[in-house]
Design a protein that fits this description.
The protein is of the alpha+beta class. The protein has 2 helices and 7 strands. The protein has a 7-stranded mixed sheet with strand order 4-3-2-1-6-7-5, covered by helices on one side.
Length: 158
């Protein structure tokens, strides 16, 4: 487990109540000689900015800037989760596994806030949720590369 420094924001006391939880899974993260690796991201952001991000097997703990927390609160308000469908599938499936209940090649995004959970699949993300999912995906990407990603010329994905 990798732990980052608690930065750039500052924390006072233990983590508060979770502001939100975010997951991104499935889809194609990258191809390697051994096959295809999917996303497996999980993030918990607390009201005070304390944040835990897990990408695959790597975990980073950090603190988000107050401006980032304010932006996320605004995006959560605009997303209006209590009035959204719980699941937003893609408009069409590219998979032969249509009856299996999953969509090959698509990333699935989930966010939970104040007891309301919404899940959406690539190409099926409602416009009102898109800025929120984009911001959360960017936060995860800013704090860690995919842990199994092969180095240039590497022969294995890990």
């Amino acid at each position: 487990m990798v732990q980052g420094d608690i930065a750039p924001g500052s924390l006072e006391g233990p983590p508060s109540e979770p502001l939100l939880t975010y997951r991104r899974f499935g889809g194609v993260a990258y191809e390697c000689p051994d096959g295809i690796t999917s996303y497996n991201d999980h993030m918990v952001i607390y009201e005070n900015g304390a944040t835990t991000i897990r990408r695959g097997v790597m975990t980073v703990q950090t603190a988000l800037e107050p401006e980032t927390i304010a932006l996320l609160r605004n995006l959560l308000d605009a997303a209006d989760l209590p009035h959204r469908q719980e699941y937003n599938p893609p408009p069409q499936r590219r998979s032969d596994y249509e009856d299996a209940g999953f969509d090959a090649d698509y990333s699935t995004f989930e966010v939970t806030h104040r007891g309301y959970a919404v899940r959406a699949v690539d190409t099926g993300i409602p416009m009102e949720l898109s800025p929120l999912f984009e911001a959360l995906t960017e936060i995860v990407a800013d704090f860690g590369a995919l842990p199994q990603e092969p180095e240039a010329g590497g022969a294995s994905c890990g």
